[in-house]
Amino acid sequence: MLIFRVFLVALALFGSAPGPVNSHQESGAWSCESDQETRVAAEFKPGTVTLDGHADDWKDVYGFEFSLLPALDPDADKEYKGGKMTVKALHDGKDVYFMLQVDGDYVYSKGNSNKCPSVALMFQVGDSASYHNMGGCKESTDSCTSKSCHGYEVDIMHFSVGTAIPGRLYGGNPVDNRDGNGGDRFGHLVDLYAWNPHCRNLDGISPSGNDSSAQNNWKGAWWHSSFTTHSGFIEEDSPYGSTGQKGTYYFEFSRPLRTMDRLQQDVQFAIGQSSKFSAAFWYPVDGSPWHGSGHYSVGCDWVPVDISPGTSALAKAASGSSWDAASAFALLLSIVSICMSAFVGYWVREGKSVPFTPIDRL
């Protein structure tokens, strides 16, 4: 029963069942002209953001803007017409946070994820994993295993909002984590891994058997700038806004820097080091449902994300505090010294005006 439900989750997420995906066909030879200098910095900013889908608390975090190009044919002439994707990131020493912002007219079709916007983050796990072909393992659906595709693992977080209420938190939850996989039966914010487009599974699910130690470590929420309420929605408020309203979609996520994964299915972040990632966006252009491989991407190769250390900022602040304290102490000593000098000078001057009286005259 569990395997059947996992099958349905994968089917809903990507528009096709696990196994050969006929829609994932490139139009010709792969060609990529990536920007080698583009990087995303996740600065150390503890206590800055609340995970609720709202972008207000991200206003002081620098955003990196990307054109959205078709993933299978990254031609600039075919880029997403709604606008760019802005990616922001930060960490608090324990969790890493991402904010994806994409301009787009508001569309929502309850229960039909393919007619709603959707986003994904993909990270390199294995040293040989390529951005192209979702890891790039050459094995087929019948032969891809953790052994035959070792080193080609990619970690994927996919959020399909067709059943997700704006502003509510989805992702890892006690019900699905108890089953030991990366699913999310409530909002379809799922944790997956892949070796290539045809060999992808929820964390903990594999062709050779399942492992109950897996978890969905991601959490996230979404919002649209056209919404007129900030007090919170419930399911009965669907569709939550007016179709066609101009605005911006916000997708906010968090995950621990390190997880308890022992299956080579999660990326492990480290402070002061870089990881490789990409971001994808699905949108029902002209109202037409999107399909699994019909997504836009922020580029045609990996983009480094730097998990910046907080020591430099703390050291600077500590150094500034020490300097201020030393300066104040020095100033105080100077004032005391001046006062003492003035007092001694006055005492000496007054002492000279007292007439000398020999002892024998007393």
Structural account:
The protein is an alpha+beta fold and about 350 residues long. Helices cover about 15% and strands about 25% of the residues. The chain contains 3 helices and 15 strands. It has helices at about 1-15, 175-180, 310-350, and strands spanning about 40-45, 65, 70, 85-90, 95-105, 120-125, 155-160, 170, 190-195, 200, 220-225, 250-255, 275-280, 295, 305. It has a 15-stranded mixed beta sheet that branches. The longest helix is centred in the C-terminal third of the chain and has 42 residues, at about 310-350. The protein is globular and about 125 Å long. The model is unreliable at about 1-15, about 15-25 and about 310-325 (pLDDT under 50). This is Cytochrome c-552/DMSO reductase-like haem-binding domain-containing protein. Keywords: Electron transport, Heme, Iron, Membrane, Metal-binding, Signal, Transmembrane, Transmembrane helix, Transport. Pfam families: EB_dh. GO terms for molecular function: heme binding; metal ion binding. InterPro entries: Cyt-c552/DMSO_Rdtase_haem-bd.
